[in-house]
Amino acid sequence: MNAVDTNVLIYVHDDREPDKKAAAKELIDSLEDGLLLWQVACEYIAASRKLLPQGYTPDDARKDVDDLRHVWTTSLPKWPVFERSGSLMGRYSLSFWDALLVAACLEAGVETLYSENFSGYNEIDGLKIVNPFRAAE
Length: 137
Description:
CATH architecture: 3-Layer(aba) Sandwich
Oligomer: single chain
Strand order of the largest sheet: 3-2-1-4-6-5
Number of domains: 1
Strand content: 5-15%
Largest sheet: 6 strands, mixed
């Protein structure tokens, strides 16, 4: 199973970064076993505000989340995710939100997380982390 971080979903609609936009679209279209994490869905709605100048509205973001949840499996948070995030923060010097994302992936059985936010980490506790934009940078 695969998961994507919020930044991947944002780039699908970000005209300011054409190479990253193309890479994000290709990745999203190719993931047949995607997992939409609750945290990512919520962050995406909030972060989509920065796309307003490009004509992308919060309603567009809500529709995209709704479309994704019908194609991918969804994962809602449970207390073990919160508890595990504390250990990850300490062992890997992650921010709270990044540790929460990794913990949610681990608890849900995700094998690969696609994100540009984990430079220096190719793997955390068995979770493979791939920056899908490395070639686009």
